Amino acid sequence: MQTDVKQVFYFHADANSLGGFLEEPFRYIPTPCSVALSSTGGSVTQKAEPFHFEDRIHAKASYTHVSGRPTKRNGPWTQRVSSVVEGFNLLGRVTADSLAAQVFIEHPEAGRGPRKISFAGSHIHNLRVDGRPVTPVLNATLLPEQHRSEDVYNRDASVNPELAWPTLWQAAHRQGVDLLENRSIPEWVRARYGWIAAKENSGEGSLEGYTLCSLVDKLDGLTSDRSSGHSIDVPDLGRIFLGEVTIFPQAVTLTMLRAELGCALTGQASVASAASNGTMIPPNVSLPGY
Length: 290
Hints:
The chain is mainly beta and 290 residues long. The protein has one domain. The protein contains two helices and 21 strands. Strands 4, 5, 6, 7, 8, 9, 10, 11, 12, 13, 14 and 16 form a twelve-stranded antiparallel sheet that branches. Strands 1, 2, 3, 15, 17, 18, 19, 20 and 21 form a nine-stranded antiparallel sheet that branches. Strand 18 and strand 19 form a beta hairpin. The longest helix has 17 residues, at 165-181. The two termini are 18 Å apart.
């Protein structure tokens, strides 16, 4: 019977393939496929056929999936979130064969340490900007070499969440410091990301309660005036941001590509996003024998 559980976990996870808005006139960019997880867990998958929006944004196919379950009666609890977009094309200037956001989180039972996470299987394949190949250099802490193959995420025995939550905060702080040490970065980059390197934001429980990092440390294939860290300046188009991870005390969101459009076409768009959250009720309970 389930009436003797000591703690109940409320699941919360969602995935969306693409979305955003354009301005002048304002209109939403419709989302080809998105899924959300029931508060009691389960499994949901949605697929979408080719997507075309105003002859500006295209995708050949997209796929989203969420699942959540307890591994034992009183935890831990796991959540898997996937968002994959294939054949992405933004105005013929930014293209990618495949973008995949994969998030796997293990929420421990009471008193068993911080939650853990894996981004195994996340990738950006054959990214091109104005026809030029661009290679993301991935962060070795957030996405180790052995977790970078396409199918690793789907082999249950091959991947367990290994990154403890404080490690995410430390990686974000380190990226912020490394970025600011580059004196040639544009002023807008320094203004936007300088707070990440601040001492008070160097660990979980920081002043603001959240931080930001990226699976991408830098980009090969672009000159230094065109890229800074995980961001790309595209003349007469806007800015592209890759592999962004927003981190909160109990939640994380991974977006593989985000665009800030600032030319004749203005607006914002995100591609391949996966978010995971959840909480235990009651939050602090002693479980003898666990």
